[in-house]
């Protein structure tokens, strides 16, 4: 008898559970992004971060983008599937070479903004490829 009562109670409780997931469990809007170690794969491009640099992903509602920040925060490289503005560096940083370039990836224009040494920038640009 107790088993039957417990089974009925569990059935009653199960009937109260919402059939749709609550909003905070829904997927984030936007294209998926995969970060595998230092490799970032977006819907528009794949690119490798410089060794030891932080990876900062763009907003899910914006075109695919990623920013790489040096450990001391005094150099950065931004890669985007849309035109981008130059991200600011902290005032305490020494001056660094900046450049903006457009790289063709899979027939699409990918923008690269760099405030970093030329060798590191060239390594990031060389790693750009189709997803």
Structure, explained:
The chain has 131 residues and is an alpha+beta fold. The protein has one domain. The protein is 18% helix and 30% strand. It has a five-stranded antiparallel β-sheet, with helices on one face. It has a three-stranded antiparallel β-sheet with strand order 1-2-3. The longest helix is centred in the first third of the chain and has 14 residues, at 2-15. The model has no long low-confidence stretch (mean pLDDT 87).
> What's the shape?
elongated
**In angstroms, what is the radius of gyration?**
23 Å
Percent range for β-strand residues: 25-35%
Instruction: Tell me the structural class.
Output: alpha+beta
For the secondary structure, the number of strands is 8
How many independent structural domains? 1
The main sheet orders its strands as: 4-5-6-8-7
Order of helices and strands: HEEEEEEEEH
Portion in helices: 10-25%
Task: Give a short synopsis of this structure.
The chain is of the alpha+beta class. It has helices at residues 2-15, 118-127; strands at residues 34-36, 39-41, 46-48, 54-57, 65-69, 76-80, 98-105, 108-115.
Write the layout of secondary structure elements.
Elements: H1 2-15, E1 34-36, E2 39-41, E3 46-48, E4 54-57, E5 65-69, E6 76-80, E7 98-105, E8 108-115, H2 118-127
Antiparallel strand pairs: 1-2, 2-3, 4-5, 5-6, 6-8, 7-8
Brief descriptors of the model:
131 residues, alpha+beta, 5-stranded antiparallel sheet, 3-stranded antiparallel sheet, 18% helix, elongated
């Amino acid at each position: 008898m107790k088993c039957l009562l417990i089974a009925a109670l569990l059935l009653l409780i199960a009937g109260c559970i919402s059939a749709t997931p609550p909003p905070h469990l829904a997927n984030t809007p936007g294209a998926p992004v995969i970060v595998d170690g230092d490799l970032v794969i977006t819907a528009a491009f794949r690119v490798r971060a410089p060794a030891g640099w932080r990876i900062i992903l763009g907003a899910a509602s914006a075109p695919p983008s990623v920013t790489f920040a040096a450990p001391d925060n005094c150099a950065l490289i931004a890669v985007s599937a849309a035109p981008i503005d130059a991200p600011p560096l902290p005032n305490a940083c020494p001056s660094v070479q900046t450049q903006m370039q457009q790289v063709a990836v899979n027939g699409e224009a990918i923008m690269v903004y760099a405030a970093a040494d030329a060798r590191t920038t060239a390594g990031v640009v060389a790693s750009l490829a189709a997803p």
